Amino acid sequence: MADRFDPSLLYAECRRCGSPVILATGPREALLWMGIAPDTLGADCLLLYEGCPRCQPHSPQHEPRLIRFRSGAAPHPGH
Ligand SMILES: [Zn+2]
């Protein structure tokens, strides 16, 4: 069987300052909140934040987006 990707290994990064974002609750909760099934993830996925506590300490909530890299294929716009 194919290896199952561990959602806790999902890399999260801030788009504004480029810092890695450390999630206190782990990415699993953010994925649930976004309605993304953890088993659809792979090593080509990245959580991208529009701000993080480092560059926006006064913003209470930073919304992540899921980015998917695919080698050799253009990304599909929208859903
Ligand atoms: Zn940041």
Keywords:
79 residues; three-stranded mixed sheet
Word description of this protein:
- With 79 residues, this protein is an alpha+beta fold.
- The chain has a domain at 7-56.
- It is built from one helix and three strands.
- It has a three-stranded mixed sheet with strand order 1-2-3, with helices on one face.
- The termini are far apart.
- Zinc ion is lined by residues 14, 16-17, 19, 51-52, 54-55.
- Zinc ion (ZN) binds at residues 14, 16-17, 19, 51-52, 54-55.
- Residues 57-79 are annotated as: Disordered.
Write the layout of secondary structure elements.
Layout: E1 11-14, H1 27-34, E2 45-49, E3 64-68
Parallel strand pairs: 1-2
Antiparallel strand pairs: 2-3
Bound molecules: zinc ion.
Number of strands: 3
Name the average pLDDT: 82
Please give the share of residues in helix: 10-25%
The biggest sheet amounts to: 3 strands, mixed
Give the termini distance in whole angstroms.
Answer: 28 Å
Shape: globular
Compose a concise summary of this entry.
The chain has one helix and three strands; from the N terminus they run βαββ. With 79 residues, it is an alpha+beta fold.
